[in-house]
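Students often ask why we bother encoding 3D structure as a string. The short answer is that it lets us treat folding as translation between two languages. Here is a chain of 341 residues written in the first language.
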Amino acid sequence: MYRQIYLLLPHHESLESDKISKYKKRWETEIGKKCYDFIIDKIKKGGGEDFLQWEFEKGTYLNRIMENQWDLKGIKIWQLNIHFPSVDNFVGIDFSYTEFWHCKFKNATFSSVYFGFSNFHNFEFEFCLFGFTNFYCVKFEKVKFKNCTFIEHNYFINCEFINCEFDNFFTEKNLFIDCLFNVNTKVKNISIKPIHNFSVKLEKKNLPDIYKGIKDSYLAGEVFGKYREYFFKQKEAETQYIKSGISKLGSYLLKNLTGYGVKPLYTLRSLITIIVIFTLIYSIKFPLSDSILMSLSSLTTMGEVPNICPYNFIYILESAIGICLFALFITILANIWFSEK
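And here it is in the second language, the structure alphabet:
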């Protein structure tokens, strides 16, 4: 379950709060500004695996404010538009408590990178690759992930997405754990193959968990329409992997009669189908116009039972089916109505 990010910040512990403040303010000191300019220049040139190692171990100035060569906690990155070279651009970097504003990263590779309590605003990831990268309690606002590949254990944990977009992305497993999507956050397309050149593919048995993560995120943001959409997709994907014949038949009936309890139009469609079927049965004995009227009367239990056998039993059967379907229809509408209140 999603929790407000500020509730998870260690601000209530003075020692931790002082440490976070120190991480941010260190870049504003005289030596910090020199380090900052050097790091940003390195990032503009494409970063790379251990791109700060030599300068840090050399002992000039990076090691005077950084805990190690991967320590970029509290740094602010803004107004960068970079097309990265095809190498490991960021490896093992700790971007905790960082701010990313008005940037576009294209073709960037993030490997074993950690973003904790960070903020992204007006940021675009295009054709980026993520591996073993985790986002914890990160707030994303107006952020786009376009043609990105998430491979090998990537997670967004308790993250908030405001007006964001995931467009054509690949993931092997569920990305979103206890997250929140607002009404303008869009998940447009999940690719079955990596956008980048990898031999893996999305196994359909993982689709229910992927849809569940998206569904729960929309539910946390009270976006009930999208919640029902991905609840339906989740149940539909689960049905494909039910092995028991009876259970699978029951699941298919649940889908086609009720839309898994979230699509009342499926029940309405079933009602129309019943009317058509029984009209055809009645038309064997009666004129078509009378058959239509008889079927409608039977379904709504408002007519008289014919005295001709076996049509009297058929009429009663349709009435029983009609009562059940109308009850289902009303129940689904009530479920949708009250779940949003």
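Translate back mentally: The domain at 253-339 is CATH 1.10.287 (Helix Hairpins). Keep this in mind for the problem set.
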